[in-house]
Amino acid sequence: SKPGMLPSLVGSPHRSMRVVAILLSVVTYGAAFPPLGWWWLAWVGIAPFLVAIDGTSARWALALGWLWGIGASYAVGSWFPTAVAHYWQQSLGLGLVLFVLVSTATGALQYALFALAYRTLAARRRATTPLMIAAAWVTAELMRGRLFGGNPWALAGVSQAGVLPLVQIADVTGVYGVSFAIAATNAAFAQMWSARRFGGQRAPAVVALGVVGVVLLYGLLRLQTVAGTGPGATKVAVIQGTLPVS
User: Fold this and answer.
1) What pTM value is reported for the model?
2) Fewer CB in 10 Å around end: N or C, the chain?
């Protein structure tokens, strides 16, 4: 690509494979949320994204991070462009433009910055690297919830809402504790994939497994001590209020 321009997304077979990995990650991540709700896919769905940005240039990391953010936003909110067009009685084209703008501000920008940070963190190849990567991922999610009005939709931890032992940690950390465990696990998978040509690397997996083990242990103990989780428990529903068009 010419100096000053974003890199071509399909400039070479090597780059094309990175884009394929991004798309695979987007589809897998989206499938972890409703309507499919295959929650277990969240534990592996981010890994192809991490593999795709490992070892890239800064510009490519930013571009691929933005692409993942836009793709993930569409995977969990494909209704958005049509809904916007119908709600304000505008064209579908305008709905798509607004979708890209909103998704960039409330997701893609944050994941692009994460991708930039990942380049440095992943290069260290240490046992604790998955923890540092998970911290960077959670930072991106925190930014999503606080910048530009906040839009914390489909954070990684939300995909586990129906898995009670995994989400009890949220009473201490919020959803970000669950996201941390998911991100650390995906980072370990990505690290092992990248290190396979060097004979493999098991330490990241052990560290990530330890994080998940702590989350699960806390959850199981918490479920035993909290009252109201049996057959007679009260069910609670949350309904979004009606908002005027103006």
Assistant:
1) 0.83
2) C
